[in-house]
Every structure is written in structure tokens, then in C-alpha cells.
Amino acid sequence: MPVKCKFCERPAFIKLHYPKMYLCEEHFKEYFERKVRRTIERYKMLKPEEKVLVVVSGGKDSAVTAYVLKKLGYNIECLHINLGIGEYSEKGERYAKMQCEKIGAPLHIVRLKELLGYGIGEVRTRRPTCSYCGLTKRYIFNKFAYDNGFDAVATGHNLDDEASFIFNNLMNWNTQYLAKQGPVTPAQFNGKLVKKVKPLYEVTEREVVAYALANGIEYEIDECPYARGATTLEWKAILNEMEEKRPGTKINFVKGYLRKKHLFEAELEETELRECKVCGMPSSGEVCSFCRFWKLEKPIDFRVEK
């Protein structure tokens, strides 16, 4: 006999391991959306009237973030950063366009090669590719949000991402990172550092994949070519093994970290921020890391004409 949904007579679409239950497609979608809404409320992420910029890569997590925020009634627009990594980036942009068309959300596109002359992986530098890619993406989505008056930036980080990040930094005792991690990063420096939120903070990667499938959300499945061999994938594999043996391991680990986060904050050295003399954005030195890395001589204006 086919297994039935816990709440109705329809066939089960998914078996959840924590909490343990079978759900049909409709009840799973309700469960997922309720979970995201409660996460937003629990961590006071967003107010109904706030203008939210969702950073969409073309992948599942950001696509689901945009979809569910739109469904929950938030005022969203999306930003896609084309990193200039050949066919991988072209596919990502195509998927981002499809995803935003599906939900009727405005999409803004920033292409790195057009903006800075180089794609990720084309810069001659000793700095690891993932390092300067992360720096570049964070700067662009924050500056874009600031220039266009957004109240918050939403990213697609899920529970698996957060658990592996915390695990990695605990194993290496990176207390500076552990002091700053969390579901919400408040606005700072007179709003020039825009508030960052993670609506999928308490949902697993498996649940995100299932929600995308249930709603017909198409997404890029290829990993970034520069992410191959990344240590975060190893930490995820270890956590997945532990989760299989003891369901609830990931969420309990992350919630435990949040309860003890103040222990790491006590070691956090307060860095006095100042305005970058090139772009005017927050910086710990005279010139911010972005302007210094890309050798900029004048600020980039991301304001969109209305």
C-alpha cells in the first residue's frame, strides 16, 4: 500500500526525518511556507512594508527564497550578478530570468566583465578565486541595495549551509567569523551596510529541493567550477551522515550555536569603520577591499533609473 500523508488521504510526496512524518505535495508546501514565515518572525528579519532585494544566482536556494518571499507577500526585487565564468554564468543568468518571470519579480542584472573588465578566474592574483569572488559579490549586492534604497538583502543560505559554516569555523577556531554569523546582520554605518537576512535559515537543503520540485521551479544544477574540492562540501558530508543517524542534529547544532554565540562575541575586536576614500562605502582602512582589489579610482553608481 502506498504511504499516505499525515493530514489527508493523498499519497505522500516526501518523508520528513525531523519531525518524522509523511506529507503530500500540498501539505508539504504549507509546512515549508509556515516554517519560513516562523523563521522570519522568530529572528525579526523583515517587516511587511520593507523593500527587499533577493540575490538570485540561478540556483535552487535563491530561487526558492524569491518564490516563497513573494508568496508570503513581501515587496521583493531580484539581483543577479553574472560572474563571467563562461557557460556556467550564462546558464545561471538564463535561469535567473526564468525564475523571476515565473513570480513576476523585477530582475536587475550586473555583469562583472562589463562592469570591471574581467570575469571571476581571469584576474592575475595570488588571492584564492573563491575569496575575491565572495568579496566582489558581497560588495556589489550591498552597494546596489544601498544605492537603490532597499531595506534588506535576502540570500538563499539554508540550514545545511549554516551548519557546515559553523562546523568548519569551530574546527579551525575562527572566532572572528563565529562572532558575526547568524540569521540576521543588522544595518550599520548609517545604513551603508544594508541589513542582511536568511529566510531559509531553518530549512534543510533536501526540503529546498523538494519545494522547488513541488512548485515547478527550474534551476541550475551545476556547481561553480571553482567550488570543486571546497572544504565546505566535506563538512556537509559529515553533517549529513550524522543527521541520518540522529535526525535533528543540524537544527540542534545551529540553535545551540546561537545560544552560545555571545562567547565568541566577547573576543570580537571592534574595528572602527570609516568611509572608503574612493567609493565612500564602509572600510576598515583608507580604501575598501573591493576598490583596492579592483584598483578603482572612482565609485560605481548602481542607481537604476525609474
Automatic annotation (TrEMBL):
PROSITE patterns: RHODANESE_3. GO terms for biological process: tRNA wobble position uridine thiolation. SUPFAM superfamilies: Adenine nucleotide alpha hydrolases-like. Zn(2+) 1 binds at residues 5, 8, 24, 27. The keyword Magnesium applies. Residues 23-97 form the Rhodanese domain. Keywords: 4Fe-4S, ATP-binding, Iron, Iron-sulfur, Magnesium, Metal-binding, Nucleotide-binding, Transferase, Zinc. The keyword ATP-binding applies. Signal peptide: none annotated. One of its GO terms (molecular function) is transferase activity. Zn(2+) 2 binds at residues 276, 279, 288, 291. Its cofactor is [4Fe-4S] cluster; Mg(2+). GO terms for cellular component: cytosolic tRNA wobble base thiouridylase complex. This is Rhodanese domain-containing protein. It comes from Thermococcus peptonophilus.
